[in-house]
Amino acid sequence: MSNSIQQYIHSKIEERRAENNFRSLKIKKGLIDFCSNDYLGFARDNELKKRVEDELSAHPELPLGSTGSRLLSGNSEYAEQLEAFLANFHQSETALIFNSGFDANYGLLSCLPYKGDTVIYDELVHASIHDGIKKSKASSTPFAHNNTSELEQRLNFATGLKYVVVESVYSMDGDFAPLTEIAALCKKHNAGLIVDEAHATGVFDNRGEGRVQQLGLAHQCLARIHTFGKALGAHGAVILGSKDLKNFLINYCRPFIFSTALPFASLANIKCAYQYLPLVNKNREKLFHLIQLFKENLSPIDKFKLINSDSPIQSIIVSGNGDVKNFAAQIEAAGFDARPILYPTVARGKERIRICLHSFNTEEEVIRLAKLISTL
To answer: Which one of 12, 79, 140, 225 is at 20 to 30 Å from 66 when CA atoms are compared?
Structure first.
């Protein structure tokens, strides 16, 4: 590697250090988890682990590796049956499995909107959506977070085919999109509604179907994206939609076409997690009890800093990379794992401690964390 390239790499690293937002990989042990997206504890659930082991043992004929992309050697009856199961579970005509939520969002948004079309998206949507939109040839414009009046203004001036992209539960703020109002606007303006359900999957509705089905809006969406790496404790994602949309993605979506398929072990984990979801209503009930308990035990000043959310994601604004890192260090010193979210991941001045609550957290742990935050 040339010296000039090495110098460039080093300068960009030092730039991050100077801005106090240098990222590094960490392994933290012995802390109480208020950080992970394992909302229902599936990633550590022994009963689910046993179910997955039994499923693997029941199919000794299936290879360990996927051996190729779905369009070559990586497809299987097992994968297609799982997609049919997911489509039925989520009240969709079809389903198409992807290797990750990032791949699903990026793939869909990069190939579907085209030159002359318009993509209108909530300003707080995930980076994978931003990247997919940038890769497409369509025009794009954001609207202020959850502001349906501004969304309609954007729709009034949109050209070509119109797409509206939102998250049902936002990953950093933890709040809900006003999906009923947004769906009505999309119907009024003949726009396709795309909803990322990553942080709603498994958590909301009677069996964890997500916010869209909880609100009765499944048939008003052009596409829904559910990811498996959060409340389901697995990996991968699925895009739900019509048969034509599935065929379109199989033919035009590069992350699907050119990626090696998920292996059997991942598919088995997904299947078992979904079968387990209807059996863990007590987990969901406890989770929502802990959410309220956490909010009730914050001091008034910390409630003022708390972003309004009824999801497992509870974020407390602590402006400035230095201040929020110091705040997180004090929380860690008390035995809790709750991570700081720095600029540029969030807007400058919106740095925060992002607290994720789980059904496996105890009442005592939640109360202690809330009271600790109130003293910092």
So the answer is: 225
